[in-house]
Write a structure and sequence with these properties.
Length: 419
Amino acid sequence: MQKLIVNGGKTLRGELSLQGCKNSALPIMAASLLCGEECVLNNCPELTDIYSASRILNGLGSRCRFSDNTAVIDSQNISKTEIPENLMREMRSSIIFMGAILGRTGECTVSIPGGCELGPRPIDMHLAAMKKMGVDIRESYGKIICRVPFGKAHGAKISLPFPSVGATENIILCAVTADGETVINNAAREPEICDLCGFLRACGAEISGDGESRIVIKGQNRLHGCVYAIMPDRIACATYLSMVAATGGEIVLKNVCVAETEPFVSVLEQTGCSIYTYDDRIYLRSGSRLKAVKDRIRTMPHPGFPTDAQAVLMSALVTANGTSVFEENIFDCRYRHTDALVKMGADIQVLGKIAVIKGVPQLHGANVEATDLRGGAAMVSAALSAEGTAEISGISHIDRGYEKIEEAVRHLGGDIRRV
Ligand code: EPZ
């Protein structure tokens, strides 16, 4: 099992080009199944979750290959419609293939997906929406067997009880080649939804309203291939900004989609960091000790503060001057990283969805274990600002979402190595 060894206390400085976005690359890879032609995805991050998606595609009969952050996917010939349980368990996004396989072939067999353990992560909204679009769903010995009686799903009006990102993506994927019009009310508005729709439009789909709560999809007979660039990763952006802020450093982040980072940056600014944006760049300078954030930081669906940035911001606030309060509203169990931060000397009290962080002057390196992707990144960030050496195990979680994290951090002057 690999580990990251971090010798803390170095100020991070420099320029970094941001990786492509995992959470839009994954549904876009699934969407490529709908195209009878080759798709070329540029700026595709090379991550273990992306390789899992590639294994799913190859298992279905597509051909998916990578080189230099470009994925070339040819889904002309699909020979299977079932995703084996071991591949379903590798990540949550395996469920997004359901809508795409159904859209392409009219049938599919999946099972409950895996992914980060953040509390219960049901798929009831996904299944209810598919049923509304005419899909028969039967569960048998852990398998979810889906079939559209006449080979093609039909459009429907679907009102989601919560703006679920994954359910919105699955509905879009099933609807783009369905008969008639589909309307999603209370749709997720995350930028990754817009990226998926941007890709689908480039393949000939008719979709409007993405980025808003009401999305309308007019079903097409078929989609074609395209060349598309995946958007930059706003959560990796939040992560590197938090790390640099925590170490009192300075950074120019390049290849950023600046508008999409606003919900995070507007909170980080309250810590006293100077932050400027221009074109596709963000400049951050953090001088003396950070200030605590006065207002409660409430995670909310986009355009609220992103749940995926909660842990990494916390890693910077544990040494801020004063008390900050988080309220986690998306997942029931997304404070699993706090035990590791406390082991490193942080003062954090968690009660249900609330976490109260009283800033301490200094953290100390310790042996800790990453429990999930963003929590693991928060441990790296805390270790970089701590005095002494930290050993972080469980780093397969981190590798699911950060491309060569140790190289990025070393590039900024951090002392980190993988052993
Ligand atoms: C996506 O997960 C992201 N994953 C998550 O990022 C992110 O935290 C989350 O959206 C929220 O922004 C990917 O895009 C691959 P949801 P998803 O469906 O789609 C409940 C990361 O670190 N719910 O919006 O699974 C659910 O339990 C990952 O990169 C149901 O109850 O999130 C949760 O409480 C972690 N029934 C809430 O909705 C359903 O059928 C939001 O989930 C679906 C969801």
